[in-house]
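Need BTB domain-containing protein's 3D structure for a figure. Predict it.
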Amino acid sequence: MDAPTIELKTALASLFTSGMYSDLTIVCGAKHYPVHRALLATRSAFFEGACRNPFLEAKTGVIDLSEDDAEATEHMVHYFYHMDYLNKSLSRRTSLRASQATSPLSSRFSKCSPPKKLNLALVEDPLLATMSAAKVSMPLTPPAHEPATQHPDAPSKSPDTPMADQIIIDELEGEQLEPELEVRSAHLVTHARVYAIAEKYGITGLKMLARQKFARDLEVHIDSPDFPEACQEVYDSTFHTDRGLRDVIIQAFRANPKLSLRQDVELAVRETPGLAFELFRMASGLPIAS
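Structure prediction for BTB domain-containing protein:
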């Protein structure tokens, strides 16, 4: 990502966090989101109409979306300012620790992000680390009656102290929990609801993004217990002519015939006529969209 793009995304994120210069409020239940008309109106047909025409929302500066799903609404607002959702980034402190970690556990976390060129400057040399630790003013070997202590924020440590290694690993696990969950946990139902709200309010980019995330999660989490509920959500919240997520689900059944043997999937098919009809046409060799 080039510097101008980073600068723009940082500025948008700052506007979202601070609420500075906001001139519109989105309300969803108990939550209020200070937003900016220009940013929403230029990316959503619905919000463009609500801000431009002489509607109550344009006069009061408040748009009430309490009838929509609260989580999907939050992701929609987040998308306007971050061009993504479910992508909570690491803090600067966590990022620095992650880049300096030499434990084998750090390689597992690195799989969550695109591969980067190895920077040898960040590789910790055991000998240099030992020499650096020896320069610390505190005694290397404390008296027997005094336990070895170290300030929790101390940046350096001896590589041959397993307890210190374990502390750093535990901190990395705790601080990187959310990004790790994004990879390991399925969000099929969430993506389906974000797709539906994007369609409802005419946010083309968000709709495409939700479809991509849904397809990716489904490929990785085909055995997820959320799959039946996601199927019902898709077929209940979209028109039969909207093939965005429906085709992804049908393709999943076509590529994984054993899905039909799952009891929870069978129950979902029984309760979702649209899905049952399309699976019948697929099994009969007929075109899905009639």
